User: What shape does this take?
Amino acid sequence: MLNTMTTFFDSSEAARSNRREMLKPWFDESRALLKLAAPLIAMHLAQIGSITADIIMVGPLGKESLAATGVGAVLFYLTWLIGYGPVAAVSPIVAQILGAHPNDRARTRAAVRMGLWAIGLMSIPLMVVLIWAKPVLLLLGQDPKVVALAETWVHMVAFGLPFSLGFGVLRGFATAIGRQHFVLFVSLGVVLVNVALNYVLIYGHFGAPALGVQGAGIASATAYACAFFTMLAVVSFTPAFKKYHVLHRFTRPDWAKFAEVFRLGVPMGISMIFEAMLFNSATLLMGTFGAASVAAHLIALNIGSVTFMVPLGIGIAATVRVGLAAGARNHEGVRVAGYTAIAFGAGFMLLCAVVIALFPGQLAALYIAADNPANAEVMRLVVPFLYVAAVFQVFDALQVTGQMSLRGLKDANAPAWIAGLSYWLVGFTSCVIFGFWFGLQGFGVWIGLALGLAAAATGMVVRFEILSKRNLR
Assistant: This one.
């Protein structure tokens, strides 16, 4: 180790040449990763921008409407995650196919086709589940007034579920073949559609009825449908995609690929459910403390979600980069790709942590009128929530980039176990202990979230270190 450090800091020409050779794979990977990740980051920021627009545009209706949007989203997001597991499997499957055989269009097409089959199979029963929004939310102890509003949002947005999942399949395919820019353009267009429809349907502009929260649900469902059909047209008619003939013999099964989509997708989906439902369960726990706690929680969570889109985009790029290296049997490339993504994700979130810690009140004021006395309780609660959010920013980056790098290796089962133990044994238990037993209420719940993310970050990165070393042998 000492000899390596001495060589690295040696100022001779030979030493400088050696340093360049040592660092070249990392610089090359950084350029390739950022080129792939940049439009993905922009795309996810656009998507979270659409959700943020819903929250901001519903906010003036009052804290009950804001809380209803958050509580309703808990139920919708759970069903979405159940369907999204097979969707998430498409990108690493395609990446490894193309890493091994860059011109293998038949197997690539089969993977995408079976991904679309999978969401077609799962969407209808998931939509049926959403019909039961009201009794489920009442059973979970939510305010009946909030539940009544949430039900109207859930029933409308349910129609967008299959389109959202279908768009995810096509997005994963586009990312794996390096054509993610098309996804970005579609996503930006859909945000504009969603915002425009929110403006018309929530408040009743241009002669439309003022539907409030229900109007936001209709706008979101319509935006999901627009995203899917636009992306389907891009995949079908754009030269960059057309050569794959994704819809060719669409009714022809490929049972091996269908099984692989579920074999990888189910544990991937379970892993995402463990994480997402910890945060969604936290929303339900907040509901027991009142509408002000839910509104404050929703604001803080959305701010953290916006910053999270950057390491998420980096992580999705890492899935492709690691998958391509794994498919080509380039084991050193696997480690370089994974750790480059982990470093970039953590570095960015460290900067975000500083900003959130310095300006919590100003950030919260973007969502709700801070000078309105009716919002005083929400503002009092949201600032300490944001301090905790600042603390767990780096943990959030480490867990997502680590997990996405493992996906590139088609490692799905172990991350699911890590997620389950981290988010529920550590995270949820801590939420209950600090929130209820210690009487810290919402602040205690956020402490539990931070501890769960810290455990997941440690587990995912250690797992990648072990697995990537094992592959080098």
Notes: The longest helix spans residues 13-58.
